[in-house]
């Protein structure tokens, strides 16, 4: 059975992600107590279910500490993937303010005073940290709901086992992606932004590609990143990782980084020797994907 655990910081988009799994035909359960997870899987096995997505958060406090061992038990007979959704604290505060919802850990108990929102977020981060370290992490700080759904749909095309390498373009002016394992700064390369004809385009457009591919420094940067990844991939596999996010950033995340991500993943996808090692490749463009969809 394919088991997908959706977890992360409250307000980071777990409900959106769960709906994406549901739309893809998964059996979905929201806010499941940790202690009931194994019983649920046993029940679904009896019903011949093949794919399930379960959302679990830290609202039940310390019981979340039992989850890593439970998942390890489930991995003996099932494919288990953890999807961890995160966002920066300022974004979370804004979202809770807009929705007027209370954080699940901000409630007052008989022993303690009610926690402030920031205290509740910090406590939740601490409780969930062991899960984040072994999960596919997505930073939704600058990501609208439609983009998160699209990223989840891309993830569902990926095989749950093996190493998944994500190449992500981003703009430094909006901050580093929190899920990045490796970061390459390509702001030193010539910028198509200063060409008025190319400014409104992206690194996916042919005129921008033709502009960049003629520059020796761009070609050299592309080759250097590819060689670095090829050299160190076996070491990341040996380390037992499930996910590796390679972030490539330029100033705005529109031209140079998008172009390089597109070129680099095109290099890796056809390689059969890497497929034999169960390495899966995904690409995404944080700033381009954050552009709101136009209603028609």
Give a verbal description of the structure.
The chain is of the alpha/beta class and about 300 residues long. The chain folds into 2 domains: about 1-155, P-loop containing nucleotide triphosphate hydrolases (Rossmann fold); about 165-290, no CATH class. Helices cover about 40% and strands about 20% of the residues. It is built from 11 helices and 9 strands. The strands form 2 sheets. Strands 2-3-1-4-5 form a 5-stranded parallel β-sheet. Strands 7-8-6-9 form a 4-stranded parallel β-sheet, sandwiched between helices. α2 links the parallel β2 (about 25-30) and β3 (about 50-55). α1 (about 15-25) packs across α6 (about 145-155) and α8 packs across α9 (about 255-270). The longest helix has 23 residues, at about 215-240. It is globular and about 60 Å long. The chain starts with a strand and ends in a 7-residue tail after the last helix. About 35% of the residues are buried.
């Amino acid at each position: 059975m394919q088991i997908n655990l959706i977890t992360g910081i409250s307000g980071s988009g777990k409900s959106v992600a769960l709906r994406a799994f549901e739309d893809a035909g998964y059996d979905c359960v929201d806010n499941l107590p940790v202690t009931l997870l194994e019983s649920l899987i046993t029940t679904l096995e009896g019903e011949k279910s093949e794919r399930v997505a379960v959302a679990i958060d830290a609202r039940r406090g310390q019981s979340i500490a039992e989850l890593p061992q439970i998942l390890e038990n489930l991995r003996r007979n099932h494919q288990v993937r953890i999807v961890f959704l995160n966002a920066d604290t300022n974004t979370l505060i804004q979202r809770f303010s807009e929705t007027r919802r209370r954080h699940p850990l901000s409630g007052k108990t008989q022993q303690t005073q009610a926690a402030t929102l920031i205290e509740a977020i910090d406590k939740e981060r601490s409780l969930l940290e062991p899960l984040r370290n072994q999960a596919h992490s997505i930073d939704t700080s600058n990501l609208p709901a439609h983009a998160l759904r699209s990223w989840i749909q891309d993830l569902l095309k990926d095989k749950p086992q093996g190493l998944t390498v994500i190449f992500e373009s981003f703009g430094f002016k909006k901050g580093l992606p929190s899920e990045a394992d490796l970061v390459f700064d390509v702001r030193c390369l010539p910028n198509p932004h200063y060409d008025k004809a190319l400014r409104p385009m992206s690194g996916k457009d042919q005129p921008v590609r033709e502009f960049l591919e003629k520059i020796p420094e761009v070609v050299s940067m592309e080759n250097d990143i590819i060689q670095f990844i090829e050299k160190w991939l076996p070491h990341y596999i040996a380390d037992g990782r499930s996910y590796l996010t390679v972030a490539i950033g330029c100033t705005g995340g529109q031209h140079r980084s998008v172009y390089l991500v597109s070129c680099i993943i095109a290099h890796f996808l056809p390689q059969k020797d890497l497929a034999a090692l169960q390495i899966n490749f995904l690409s995404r463009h944080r700033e381009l994907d954050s552009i709101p969809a136009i209603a028609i």
